[in-house]
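Lecture notes, unit on protein representations.

Consider one protein chain, 510 amino acids long.
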Amino acid sequence: MRLRRWFMLLAVCTSAPLAFAQNPQPTTPPSLTIYNQNFAVVRQPVTLQLKAGTNNIRYTGITAQLEPDSLVLRDPAGKRALQILEQNYQGDPISMPSLMEKYEGQSIKFEVRHGDKSDEVQGRIVRAGATYGLRNPQQPCYNPPNGPGCMQTEEALVEINGNLQFGLPGTPLFPALPPGTNLLPTLDWIISTDHAGPLDAELSYVTGGMTWEAAYNVVAPPTGDTLELVGWVTMDNRTGKTFENAHIALMAGDVNKVQPSGAPYVRMAAISGSFGGAVGGLQPVVEKAFDEYHLYTLQRPTTLRDRETKQVEFVRAAGFTARRIYVYDGGRIDPARLQQYAGNPEYFHQMRDLGTDSSPKVWIMQEFKNSTQNHLGIPLPKGRMRFYRRDDNGALQFIGENTIDHTPRDETIRVYTGNAFDLTGSRRRTNFNIDQQRGFADESFEIKVRNHKTEAVEVTVVEHFYRSAGWEITSSSVKPEKKDSHTAEFKAQIPVDGEATLIYSVHYMW
């Protein structure tokens, strides 16, 4: 039976060219699930007029960045046997490079402009050029030349009056469209079904060129730290197709996707939930836990045009409190240097100047709990968070921004927003002794933080101990708190126009 089926398929694939006349039209608006990793899943209901046996169908309602092997065409009711025997994806619609390729070896006219005047010259296209490869191996070149990973690697070569020249002499004037030219990205199917009649099918596929991201605007009053938050989602469509009145959902989370080709690994199981404030009880976006991710569904259809960027408000919260934290991390080591020598601990043992660099900057951090008790409790997708404060006249003034990662409810968010103007720090090593034979070292540091503000502040002093994982603070003027195997923190209380001095010693063992 399998052998007979294989011979039937071979006969179909090797027969004379088939006429793909039928172009089914969408019956209802599409549905999109957009991922913040530059791809989306498209679901489009279509009506197919089928006869029993083999059908030749052409469909042009797809994107220019379709991943062909991700396509699923099925009967959602499960009542009809449906099989795609063959699929041909022609993702290179009509363009000047594609027409140049089709006229390769032929002579055409070129329009050459000279100021306000123009004339025509005859030239033979020896080589069309526009040979495409991958610019970025993480992005497939599905649609030359517009695909995200496409790159032109050679120029056109044209013969004019017996002479060869690289590049085009002018604008090519093509006499006609060659047979088989597609004006849109096209799928040609050979479909087998068990009986005749119309079929309301569902077409689903993965496409590149579409992404979304979140952005948050946090507003503080002239004094105090009781804040308001407005969150936006920005959707960007670069697929080459407009989606009319689409039902849109946004997937948040780090979904594994094989590059440069292949369908995404998406596991499906949903638990209901919602969030967000809105006028008149209307929630513009509803959130659901979805497997190990979170799904945000727009509650009204929207049109997402090709090459359009669209914003939708998806969360609004007021009355939550944040805490401003000042951090002095004056002795940090370049992370690239740490990574370079991570496999060679002897380097850190012997390096005498390790951790002696000093920076005067004191960081400003905004910290708040993402909890219902703090008038939040919202699964927040990763994105940019901007902070504003109203001045005495009520005008918003920008005071810093940074990015946050995907943050579940009841987790603490800490955002670096800039460096304090009226706080400075200094750090110097006062003692160093190392004994390589016995495997230990001793260091002492003096750290000073100065406050030029009109109120007293607390500054968290962060110290890193990279010389060895075996270390102990033997003396300190401020009680330390060990955070991990290489980090300790000290809380320094600094009066108005005052200075706090931290002196400590550490003993390393290896």
